[in-house]
């Protein structure tokens, strides 16, 4: 069940989106996210839907993967919809019973909020689906490079993050295994109060930490053996270089954002937090 | 005591892109006191199979009977089943967590609700059964050698006094002597306690020496289920699925092909030597 | 010319009590002399805790001797100046396949070493392609390592070392955590390296079947080299091997058993064809 989590996982196929420079994908994703928040017009969402749909189509990531990525936010989504549906007042009253009132504005807001949340997650998971974690880290590293001048260890942080990404699935699987082994020894993780349950975690956490440290130790040794000595003097197998297609992607996204923004100008600007 | 599987199927992540049939219509019965080997390579379904035997995984369809009772019946006491069918995972030392050996082995019995004294009594018996020296009882399990750690981990399951002991690759990563010691200890345990033992392995040589029945798994199916001799008679089929009979079996077949009057059924060195010597008289 | 040469190698580490005070020293390696000629295949056998892995880690300066000297391709590993040259000359593959793959995509992992030693981009791609071909993992170059079998992961690790074009590759129990199929894959990859690249191979293992093709075998026990010879010579001394917690291949054992029962079979039989031939000759 732990393995079902898809968010943050790379989907390795060849597509025009996959082959874009990670920096393009990071910045365009940010632009897309911002575009979701600066407008709330029907037309704006039509454009956003078309844009997202086009990118998903071009990325060759099956739609059901993206839908599966939405699973973790289902509860948040329902909460948002319900809150907005009942608490937003304005426009014509569509339904009224006891203390509940549903207005036209409420329906509009809740639908838009739901779309905004779903597109937010879909857009950012599309970035991770189409960019290998290493590519993502490379992109971040390059984008944050100016911070190097402030003596921030940008390369090191990027390396740590990319290693963490590689080991998360391994450690999750390991947790699963240790948990099963302790259940086989009669451990009970489901009953009891909070303190008892927290205590019941010790037989999982101790072995997990021991294993994580052993892995860290092994990995450090393996990296040293392969001559790793920080970012200095390192070359790149996949150096980041903008080409024509990357520039086109920037242009399209900027045009999109400008379009959405312009459309948003015709309707009153509103920013809802629930 | 017996465990019976009736048409058990198990499908991973059904309905998704990752859907995979891990067990395909498995029916078998393991009787009281048997010493059974389960053989198959990685991905053959052997690990999935044993996790069904103590209810850690639930079959997608089919039934499992423990002592004639379906473990999937409403209200069936799974925790009791898990204490009767002890499962030792691969690299079991990775689950050790307590400050000293004896406390770690007490974890199982305490979970069964036994008192401090009873737990310790069972733990001591279990450590003795695996041949773990008493002078290290108070030592941290993390400071022991690989072979000793593994003994402690096996004792951790034995301390629950199971009627069936299932071991998944108990010799993985051990050196030859360590491997023989652990296997000898398990064989001794089986002999002394009459416990049912299920040994999962991918080494034919190991299994042939100890067990009286071998179940060969391949691609989620039960391919063969018989005595070692009978199973190794199918050595050509075993090879086709990436397994192999013990080396001596091949020697005997080669000799027979070269006109020696030997029976090719030998599976251990002693049997093979006896056969060859007999052909020379 | 010797690829690796060690003289009176000693490695000691401090034993500490619970408060961290030094209460003595452990000698993991105790006066080892070893010569590995260029292009040869050398196996080191030994039980868990015999010091064989500690020895291996001296061959690419992960550990530095506390006594004696190790030269890798003529360079003293004690001299910090030589550190990166030593590691470039002698690549190392470790036991746990999961804990030595850094990249999240196979080809990126193979490129990690060349990146570290500053190889130009175009050449990295060439080397990665060639290394993956050598270990037969080309079709998985875009896969995530997490989706591979143990044997495949270990072959990726070997490719990662080969891409640095070392003269020598040290494999520290590369098959200990693999199933028989994975073991076969890894050994085939190593055999291919030897044939096509003429790399010096040092294989640390406790699987007897894996050392049959070695040029020389060293057996270690409590930090010493206790036996040294060709596989045939070593396996001809089955009882001695067993006293060091080792084993001999089943065929060798059967031959030995038959010899004990009075058949005139030569010592140190390694393969089943040899045993069958020997028995046919006796008839």
In angstroms, what is the radius of gyration of chain C?
A: 20 Å
Most extensive chain contact? A-C, 31 and 42 residues
For this structure, what is the CATH homologous superfamily of chain C?
A: P-loop containing nucleotide triphosphate hydrolases
The proportion of residues forming helix of chain C, as a percent range, comes to 25-40%
Describe this structure in words.
Chain C: InterPro entries: AAA+_ATPase, ABC_transporter-like_ATP-bd, ABC_transporter-like_CS, ABC_transpr_CbiO/EcfA_su, ECF_ABC_transporter_ATP-bd, EcfA_1, P-loop_NTPase. The complex is a heterotrimer of chains A (274), B (281) and C (283). With 274 residues, chain A is mostly helical. Chain A contains ten helices and two strands, in the order ααααββαααααα. In chain A, helix 1 packs parallel to helix 10, helix 2 packs parallel to helix 5 and helix 2 packs antiparallel against helix 10. In chain A, 31% of the residues are buried. With 281 residues, chain B is of the alpha/beta class. Chain B is built from eleven helices and ten strands. The longest helix of chain B is centred in the middle third of the chain and has 18 residues. In chain B, helix 3 crosses helix 4, helix 3 packs parallel to helix 5 and helix 4 crosses helix 5. In chain B, strands 6-7-8-3-9-10 form a six-stranded mixed β-sheet, sandwiched between helices. A four-stranded antiparallel β-sheet of chain B has the order 2-1-4-5, with helices on one face. Chain C has 283 residues and is of the alpha/beta class. Chain C has one domain: P-loop containing nucleotide triphosphate hydrolases (Rossmann fold, 3-Layer(aba) Sandwich). In chain C, the strands form two sheets. Chain C has a six-stranded mixed β-sheet with strand order 6-7-8-3-9-10, with helices on both faces. Chain C has a four-stranded antiparallel β-sheet with strand order 2-1-4-5, covered by helices on one side. In chain C, strand 9 and strand 10 form a beta hairpin. Chain C is globular and about 65 Å long. Chain C starts with a strand and ends with a helix. The relative contact order of chain C is 0.14.
């Amino acid at each position: 069940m732990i393995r079902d989590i898809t968010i943050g996982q790379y989907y390795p196929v060849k597509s025009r989106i996959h082959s874009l420079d990670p920096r393009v994908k990071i910045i365009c994703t940010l632009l897309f996210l911002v575009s979701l928040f600066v407008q709330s017009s029907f037309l704006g969402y039509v454009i956003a839907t078309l844009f997202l749909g086009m990118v998903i189509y071009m990325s060759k990531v099956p739609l059901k993967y993206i839908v599966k990525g939405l699973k973790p936010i289902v509860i948040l989504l329902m909460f948002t919809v319900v809150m907005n549906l009942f608490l937003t007042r304005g426009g014509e009253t569509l339904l009224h019973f006891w203390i509940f009132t549903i207005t036209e504005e409420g329906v509009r807001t809740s639908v838009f909020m739901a779309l905004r949340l779903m597109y937010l997650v879909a857009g950012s998971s599309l970035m991770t689906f189409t960019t290998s974690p290493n590519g993502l880290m490379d992109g971040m590293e390059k984008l944050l490079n100016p911070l190097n001048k402030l003596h921030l260890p940008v390369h090191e942080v990027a390396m740590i993050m990319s290693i963490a990404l590689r080991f998360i699935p391994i450690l999750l699987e390991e947790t699963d295994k240790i948990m099963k082994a302790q259940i086989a020894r009669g451990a009970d993780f489901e009953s009891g109060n909070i303190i008892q349950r927290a205590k019941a975690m010790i037989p999982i956490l101790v072995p997990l930490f021991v294993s994580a440290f052993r892995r860290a130790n092994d990995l450090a040794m393996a990296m040293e053996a392969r001559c790793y000595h920080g970012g200095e003097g390192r070359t790149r197998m996949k150096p980041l270089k903008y080409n024509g297609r990357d520039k086109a992607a920037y242009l399209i996204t900027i045009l999109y954002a400008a379009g959405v923004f312009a459309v948003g100008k015709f309707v009153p600007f509103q920013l809802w937090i629930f | 005591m017996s465990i019976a599987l009736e048409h058990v199927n198990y499908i991973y992540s059904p309905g998704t892109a990752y859907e995979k049939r891990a067990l395909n219509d498995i029916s078998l019965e393991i009787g009281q006191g048997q010493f059974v080997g389960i053989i198959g390579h990685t991905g053959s379904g052997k690990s999935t199979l044993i996790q069904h035997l103590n209810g850690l995984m639930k079959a997608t369809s089919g039934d499992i009977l423990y002592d004639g009772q379906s473990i999937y019946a409403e209200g069936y006491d799974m925790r009791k089943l898990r204490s009767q069918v002890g499962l030792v995972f691969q690299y079991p030392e990775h689950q050790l967590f307590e400050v000293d050996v004896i406390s770690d082995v007490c974890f199982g019995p305490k979970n069964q609700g036994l008192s401090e004294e009873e737990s310790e009594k069972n733990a001591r018996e279990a450590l003795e059964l695996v041949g773990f020296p008493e002078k290290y009882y108070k030592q941290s399990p993390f400071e022991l050698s690989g072979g000793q750690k593994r003994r402690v981990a096996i004792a951790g399951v034995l301390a629950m006094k199971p009627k069936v002991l299932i071991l998944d690759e108990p010799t993985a990563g051990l050196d030859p002597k360590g491997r023989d010691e652990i296997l000898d200890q398990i064989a001794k345990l089986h002999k002394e306690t009459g416990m049912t033992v299920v040994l999962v392995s991918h080494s034919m040589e190991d299994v042939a020496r100890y067990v009286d029945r071998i179940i060969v798994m391949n691609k989620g199916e039960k391919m063969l289920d018989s005595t070692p001799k009978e199973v190794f008679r199918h050595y050509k089929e075993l090879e086709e699925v990436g397994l192999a009979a013990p080396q001596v079996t091949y020697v005997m077949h080669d000799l027979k092909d070269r006109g020696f009057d030997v029976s090719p059924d030998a599976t251990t060195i002693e049997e093979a030597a006896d056969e060859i010597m007999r052909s020379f008289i | 010319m010797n690829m690796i040469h060690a003289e009176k190698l000693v490695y000691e580490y401090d034993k500490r009590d619970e408060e961290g005070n030094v209460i003595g020293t452990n000698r993991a390696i105790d006066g080892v002399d070893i010569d590995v000629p260029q292009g040869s295949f050398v196996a080191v056998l030994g039980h868990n805790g015999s010091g064989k892995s500690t020895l291996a880690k001296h061959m690419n300066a992960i550990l530095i001797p506390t006594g004696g000297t190790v030269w890798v391709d003529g360079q003293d590993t004690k001299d910090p100046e030589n550190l990166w040259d030593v590691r470039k000359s002698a690549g190392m593959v470790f036991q746990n396949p999961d804990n030595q793959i850094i990249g999240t995509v196979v080809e990126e992992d193979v490129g990690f070493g060349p990146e570290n030693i500053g190889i130009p981009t175009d050449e990295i791609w060439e080397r990665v392609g060639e290394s993956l071909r050598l270990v037969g993992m080309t079709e998985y170059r875009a896969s995530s390592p997490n989706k591979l079998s143990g044997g495949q992961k270990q072959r990726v690790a070997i490719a990662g070392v080969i891409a640095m074009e070392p003269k020598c590759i040290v494999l520290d129990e590369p098959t200990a955590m693999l199933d028989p199929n994975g073991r076969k894959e890894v050994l085939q990859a190593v055999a291919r390296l030897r044939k096509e690249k003429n790399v010096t191979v040092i294989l640390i293992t406790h699987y007897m079947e894996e050392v049959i093709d070695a040029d020389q075998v060293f057996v270690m026990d409590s930090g010493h080299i206790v036996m040294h010879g060709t596989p045939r010579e070593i396996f001809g001394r089955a009882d001695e091997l067993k006293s060091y917690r080792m084993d001999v291949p089943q065929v060798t054992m059967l031959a030995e058993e038959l010899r004990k029962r009075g058949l005139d079979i030569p010592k140190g039989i390694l393969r089943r064809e040899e045993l069958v031939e020997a028995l046919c000759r006796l008839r």
